[in-house]
Structure prediction request, 296 residues.
Amino acid sequence: MELRQLRYFIALAEELHFARAAARVGIEQSPLSKAISEMERNLGVRLFVRTRRSTRLTPVGETLLIDARRILADVDLARRRVQSAACGRSGRLRIAISDGFAHPRIAKLLAKSRDEDPQVDLQIVHSALPLQLSELCSGMLDVALSLSPRNDCQLDSVALWKDPAALVMRPDHELAAQQIVRQIDHDSGPFILLGDRLGPESKLLDGWLASAVQQPKLIEYVVSIELLLTLVATGFGLGLVSVAQAEMIRRPDLVVRPLNVQGATITSFLIRRRREPSITVSRFIERALKMVVIHT
Prediction:
């Protein structure tokens, strides 16, 4: 049976009138009658009882009507799914969030993605950056959100959100008396940062430490904001975070002070495979870029 024949059959089964059924499907009555007769020959059954005054379904025809409606509904659903996938509005999007990447815009981005593309299955994982990079290269992940960019023959990074830096410290630290920290010197550190030694923080430090009166003490990198806050609270040093991350810190044993030093900004990145991205990935990247807020 052809889909065309099933459509003709459903029209006649619902209209029970050849002329009306033919008009409904947009053909002449004769081709409709011929198609129904051909179906009956191929199936070896009678689907309709025809008289000069009426047309009615046989019990076998009633059984076929149930399946015919289901088949055409499945075909229509498949067509809509394919069209949706072609527009990047369905499918699966596997997103990794790096350790320490606590950013309030992530929730807004994911919520917006769910609202705009409800048929896309968002799968969110949280793992260490080295594992994410490996899974990106192997195709197990589609994108990763990180504080550390990666650009090589396989991976490419897109800068998303560039935020001013802020310092997290104990209330008894000497800088806590300043509402805005405008100068860093040797006695201010050591500093504790999120990320790794090859991350964007190192480039950040190159900018604003060059203008410091004296170079601050050793810089320590940690993988989670929880560990950063713990080390700061125990007196190991000053935490360096973005102002967006600082908004999420609510601890009585810590205070946050904006760092008003030229070049003191922290950038968030989206990492993806360098090859041409799928439409679903492209839509997600475009959506993320529209949320860019650059502070100077």
